[in-house]
Write a structure and sequence with these properties.
The complex is a heterodimer. By secondary structure, chain A is α+β, with helices and mostly antiparallel strands. In chain A, 16% of the residues lie in helices and 37% in strands. In chain A, the strands form two sheets. A six-stranded antiparallel beta sheet of chain A has the order 1-2-3-9-8-5. A three-stranded antiparallel beta sheet of chain A has the order 4-6-7. The longest helix of chain A is centred in the last third of the chain and has 9 residues. Chain A is globular, with a radius of gyration of 13 Å. Chain B is 20% helix and 34% strand. In chain B, strand 7 and strand 8 form a beta hairpin. The longest helix of chain B has 11 residues. The chains are: A alpha+beta, B alpha+beta. Strand 7 of chain A pairs antiparallel with strand 1 of chain B, so a sheet runs across the interface.
Chain lengths: 123, 384
């Protein structure tokens, strides 16, 4: 399993051709209390960089972009009742959706954990 | 990820951004600063949800020093001529306004559109106004044009303004005030001069949260001293702009630039009480022809409160629909921390504005079920 990060503060953990996507702990801290997560439809075809999910906080709504292209394989049903999981477990239990990758080469444009950390430190 | 901007009006040129008297205090206290109304202001400290609920159950201190404080007077003191000049500019009835009492009023354009909402208080020496931060420069210009030359208009820009709000605000404040009258003599919408921690303070029992609470004007150089004093009380925490917005939304109170604008009038904004009774009979203020006509004939649309099914919030600009036909627009919306459900304010066709009216809100391609409710969403708890 390998974890990658985008400049838009999504993480994706890849096992085989299946990626699990969420927002980073830094991102949830910036957004504040999350009250609702609008998830993509299972089976939907998505393209790298598409806005596929929206995270609502008390203050505002924020787009989540998929870091890779593919097909939505699953969504995190637990978020319907517990959207706050995105705050408390952003990089584990608060994952948003799983995507079956159509082009694994896209992962090459993402950051590893160390690169993402220095990216956040530079903000 | 990217956030939808709250409104283009809130985007301010970097160069113009000013610092409030408590700027350093907010940063030391852990406030996350954003630009708002031309100032660096704290949007939150520990988090909007926690700050909101703390204010509802205990007490929160808000820095609202960005708001405009204006003093209107004349060399001859408070004369009939001064009162007549103010009544020609605002739809307020000063004959029923007692010394020390603040009253809600509106600055209207010649068409009756709302240029700002404000509080006007009668002092023995003149009239003290508090206007919105984002509009204060325009307001001062408008008032200067409306008032005759012999009337003096002072911008009290050396004065800070704090609000202490919540059911325990009285207990926390009372420990630090001395005055000719006890703090408990102030009921909702009354004010008086006090010493607060040794500092000259004008305190009124008023606010923007729906809770009991106080608004406190003090010299800017004493703002840190007073903020430390009040936040040193166990009941009090500092509260940012985020919770200020969610609290006022639950209280059903409109926010200028969102729920009020030159496109809205006092009547369709459901602010008839801001046009005092004698004035709505006699007119004689800017836009009074339109306002009196609206009172007599009603308006095609009206500001209402909506509660939404589900958890997805409606935001400003979302369309309100009935049978796929647009019947209104959302002007404020968000998730209510107290009610744990989304709420919104919208202008809808008057025919559909009655309590219980079932409508749909379109948000990011989704249709959200909504129902008109009587505001406030959360009952007011003013100390009357």
């Amino acid at each position: 399993m390998t974890r990658y990060f985008s400049e838009d503060h999504e993480w994706i953990e890849v096992e085989g051709n299946l990626g699990t996507v969420g927002i980073t702990d830094y991102a949830q801290g910036q957004l504040g209390d999350i009250t609702f997560v609008d998830l993509p439809a299972e089976g939907a075809t998505v393209g790298k960089g598409d806005s596929v999910s929206v995270v609502d906080s008390v203050k505002a709504a924020s787009d989540v972009y998929t870091p890779v292209s593919g097909t939505v394989a699953a969504v995190n049903e637990a978020l319907a009742d517990q959207p706050e999981l995105v705050n408390t477990e952003a990089e584990t239990g608060g994952w948003l959706f799983r995507v079956t990758l159509s082009d694994a080469a896209e992962l090459g444009s993402l950051m590893d954990e160390a690169a993402y950390k220095s990216y956040v430190d530079s903000l | 990820m990217s956030e939808y901007p709250v409104s283009e009006d809130d985007v301010v040129d970097e160069i113009a951004i000013l610092h409030l008297p408590l700027d350093a205090w907010h940063r030391e206290t852990g406030g996350r600063m954003v630009e708002f109304a031309g100032y660096h202001m704290p949007v939150q400290y520990e988090g909007i949800m926690a700050e909101h609920l703390w204010t509802r159950e205990s007490a929160g201190l808000f820095d609202v020093s960005h708001m405009g404080q204006v003093f209107i007077s004349s060399e001859e003191g408070v004369t009939p001529a001064l009162e007549a000049a103010i009544e020609a500019a605002l739809p307020v009835d000063l004959s029923t306004l007692k010394v020390g009492a603040p009253r809600y009023s509106l600055l209207l354009d010649e068409n009756g559109g709302v240029l700002d909402d404000l509080m006007i208080t009668r002092w023995a020496s003149g009239f003290y106004l508090v206007v919105n931060g984002a509009t204060k420069w325009d307001d001062i210009g408008t008032l200067r044009e409306l008032l005759p030359d012999e009337v003096t208009l002072n911008h009290l820009d050396e004065s800070a303004l704090l609000a202490l709000q919540g059911p325990k605000a009285f207990a926390a404040l009372e420990r630090h005030v001395e005055g000719d009258t006890p703090l408990e003599s102030l009921t909702f919408m009354k004010g008086a001069a006090f010493k607060l921690g040794g500092v000259d303070a004008w305190i009124s029992r008023s606010g923007y949260t729906g809770e009991d609470g106080f608004e406190i004007a003090i010299p800017a150089e004493s703002a840190e001293h007073v903020a430390d004093l009040l936040c040193g009380e166990p009941e009090v925490k500092p509260i940012g702009l985020g919770a200020r917005d969610s609290l006022r939304l639950e209280a059903g109170l409109p926010l200028y630039g969102h729920d009020l604008s030159p496109e809205t009038s006092a009547v369709d904004a459901d602010l008839k009480f801001a046009i005092n009774k004698r004035r709505r009979e006699q007119g004689g203020f800017p836009g009074s022809d339109r306002v009196l006509r609206d009172f007599a004939q009603g308006t095609p649309r009206r500001r209402v409160g909506l509660v939404l099914e589900g958890r997805m919030a409606a935001r400003e600009g979302a369309r309100v629909l009935l049978n796929d036909q647009e019947v209104g627009l959302v002007t404020s919306g968000g998730f209510s921390p107290s009610l744990q459900q989304p709420i919104a304010m919208a202008y809808v066709d008057t025919a559909l504005s009655a309590e219980g009216s079932e409508l749909t809100i379109e948000m990011r391609g989704k249709k959200l079920d909504a129902k008109v409710v009587t505001m406030p969403f959360v009952p007011h708890r003013y100390h009357r």
